Amino acid sequence: MSDLNVVLDRIDADLDKSLDRLFALLRIQSISTDPAYKKHCREAAEFVAADLRSIGFDAGLRDTEGHPVVVGKSSNGAGFQGSKNGAPHILFYGHYDVQPVDPLDLWSAPPFEPKIDTLADGRKIIVARGACDDKGQAMTFIEACRAYKNVTGKLPLPVTMMIEGEEECGSKNLFGFVRDNAAEFKLDLALVCDTAMWDQNTPAITSSLRGLVYEDVKLTCADRDLHSGSFGGAAQNPIRVLSKILAALHDDQGRVTIPGFYDGVRDLPADIKADLAALNLTAEQFLGQVGLKVPAGEKDRMLIEMITTRPTAEINGIIGGYTGEGAKTVLPAKASAKVSFRLVGDQDPDKIVEAFHKFVRDRLPVDCTVEFGNFGNARALQLAFDSPALNKTRSALKAEWGKTAVTVGAGGSIPIVGDFKSVLGMDSIMVGFALDDDRVHSPNEKFDLKSFHKGIRSWARILDALSA
Amino acid sequence: MSDLNVVLDRIDADLDKSLDRLFALLRIQSISTDPAYKKHCREAAEFVAADLRSIGFDAGLRDTEGHPVVVGKSSNGAGFQGSKNGAPHILFYGHYDVQPVDPLDLWSAPPFEPKIDTLADGRKIIVARGACDDKGQAMTFIEACRAYKNVTGKLPLPVTMMIEGEEECGSKNLFGFVRDNAAEFKLDLALVCDTAMWDQNTPAITSSLRGLVYEDVKLTCADRDLHSGSFGGAAQNPIRVLSKILAALHDDQGRVTIPGFYDGVRDLPADIKADLAALNLTAEQFLGQVGLKVPAGEKDRMLIEMITTRPTAEINGIIGGYTGEGAKTVLPAKASAKVSFRLVGDQDPDKIVEAFHKFVRDRLPVDCTVEFGNFGNARALQLAFDSPALNKTRSALKAEWGKTAVTVGAGGSIPIVGDFKSVLGMDSIMVGFALDDDRVHSPNEKFDLKSFHKGIRSWARILDALSA
């Protein structure tokens, strides 16, 4: 029996223990964007570092101005450093931080008390904040390493782990960390587990990522909240101003109206576009799962373009005035919104920010001032469609799932992957086991037990393939 | 020395005790719109009833489906019932409930811990939620009665008190209560203390009130919150839909665009318009006090029309998606807004509600549903400009303030006053001592000590004048 088969058997036999470890991590409330959870984030980092040490990694916390980065290095001996024997030195990237949990009242159980549930179609799922994004996904790789270590006493190739704690708030401090330690992390290949499958049975390799600009817009009119009976009709209302600005962001065709927004956006080559069309993603299939019917994006684009290869502008949040129960006849002093843009091609985040600020300022009446906040800029990223490592990964995924992996563009951003290429000159391979119905960033986030189990097995096969 | 002069002296001498009683009432958190404060509302009602009993009223609580109404009847003996001796039987109306206090972090001191403060210009003020609206104002009338009772052993005319607890949430249950007990409350004249002075030195009698329609609009798109990286650009965003609807409520000239909205709105007669123009209310004077410069209403109207005689549409609150600190790349399932309309002339609240619902529904895309909530409808009200009781009130106010009272229209609504006329066939005289800078419904609400003190004296003079 080959090492790999013994490793896969061990993974099957140890699944319950793997779940226990994942549950322990899921119980830690590591919400990175909210300062109130700072110590929980550190606790999650300590947990991951200790777990890596338990399987022979030389692991610890590296402090940043934000939450710490967990760095672990496999101690396979000097022989494995570098790419001796053709085995590349892998940098694995994941994150231990999670999104906020509000609105809490929409969760059917407490978000940090993970449990196994069963869907109507019989699928077993792990329910908790972070079950998928990214604790569940990151642990698939760590558990694959553990199985190797337990069976063979070592890993098939050298691995450096970088598990960060600020992905959900833009990875702000990780950029500087990677730049400052470029020599340490400039390895042979990065593996990233934070993306999705094509569907429940079809694995996917993600070859492009949209970029992100995330802005906060705060408007102020009067110097205090006013009584709408006294001042209504005469005093400028910041919610009205904000609504007008946000309503102007898209035209009737669904295109973003900010001047210069589409600079750097290229149309897809005809063959790639044909490949996308061949996937035949229908609105029923993609939007039907969340109760929707009609694509809301640019009217002249396919749905799959809207979610992977076209830039977008979305309003992620808005608040102003009285929002409690019942009525309050207030004319508020302030209103604010969070607006984010997904970028593709060569769109320049700095220019988008500048153009957006001008767009807002051009629409401000005299009695209204604006303050902007930025929560991270990331350029879009296009990775290789073809390389020896990619082909090995494809073969390993096919062996596990019985179906050829689809190569897709992802709608979301993983900010640091761009820097792995531009700063470290290192390619990344993004393989993940999320499904579209995982409710990532939403109440009742889940991860299929099958994704977790076969995800671990997939990484074991990929490590084996890459070491060959 | 006449009774009146002794009464006025007693008011001056007892001011500190009057303030102690007001402070005790201000400490009760009687927020009527929030069910969490139900028992506090009852406590405030019990406090007022006990206070009325202490000055000889036969007073108690009358239960409704909402918060109770305090009813008190002066026991001046049968001789005073009806209008014997020409002294009218007065119905005094006020309310013991207050507005919510959020945003709490903008208060410079706890809203239910009243205190005396001094403004930069030397004015002494009472600071607390309800200091003005309406606990402070209602107590000016009660303290005037107390002084009469203490000095003369009785009131100069018979008084029935109706102090309700739901004015700040639309007086929903008071309408039925007044209808069901019409015989009991159909008296000679209603006095209402819930309006403002013209300025710090000029008293005002309010002869018209705008009506109100207050609506809640909740939009739902997907059946759960989504990740904007996965679904952004493809799934309908309810904040975007809501912004477009709210932005469409006004045209570039500041007019409300809902079809039929202006039905029943008449232009002012030329002489009344000239009177308003003669008041010469400037933007600097009215908006300058809250940090604004430019009237935001209909471009072809005077500022004083915008705030008193023209109808309006205001957005009182909006919420959707992520509104906490930092970033969350959510594409929300829901967004909602509170929208209110001030009505004038013969605008029909039911028709406005219907037209508004149609306006919203006409703008909903396929993947968006709406739920409406209503927090009260009230027609606008025009009272007499001239009557013997009004003239006596004007004389009394001039004697106290040394300046002729201005007759004005009020921007806000007091829902029940319309029913006093239409159901009970009874005129109302609205006199109040609020100032434009009282921050009514806002953080740091205040009432000038001078308003409180001279307000009590004003009512003593008015009671004397009406009894003559």
Provide the domain count of chain A. 2
Q: Largest interface: which pair?
A: A-B, 101 and 101 residues
Name of the level-1 CATH class of the largest domain in chain A = Alpha Beta
Summarize the amount of helix of chain A as a percent range. Answer: 25-40%
Provide the CATH superfamily of the largest domain in chain A.
Zn peptidases
Q: Poorly predicted ranges of chain A (pLDDT <50, ≥5 residues)?
A: 77-84
CATH architectural name of the largest domain in chain A: 3-Layer(aba) Sandwich
Give descriptors for this structure.
Aminopeptidase; homodimer; alpha+beta; 21% strand; Alpha-Beta Plaits; nine-stranded mixed sheet; 468 residues; globular
Report what the structure shows:
The structure is a homodimer of 468-residue chains. The first copy, chain A, is of the alpha+beta class. Chain A folds into two domains: 3-209 and 380-467, 3-Layer(aba) Sandwich (Aminopeptidase), CATH 3.40.630.10; 211-265 and 311-378, Alpha-Beta Plaits (2-Layer Sandwich), CATH 3.30.70.360. The first copy, chain A, has helices at residues 3-13, 15-26, 38-54, 135-152, 172-180, 182-185, 228-231, 238-247, 270-278, 283-286, 303-308, 349-361, 388-401, 415-422, 449-467; strands at residues 57-62, 69-74, 90-95, 115-118, 124-127, 159-164, 189-192, 204-209, 211-220, 226-227, 312-321, 330-331, 334-343, 369-378, 381-382, 406-410, 428-431, 446-448. In chain A, β4 and β5 form a beta hairpin. Chain A is globular. At the A-B interface, β9, β10, α7, α8 and α11 of A face β9, β10, α7, α8 and α11 of B. β11 (312-321) of chain A pairs antiparallel with β11 (312-321) of chain B.
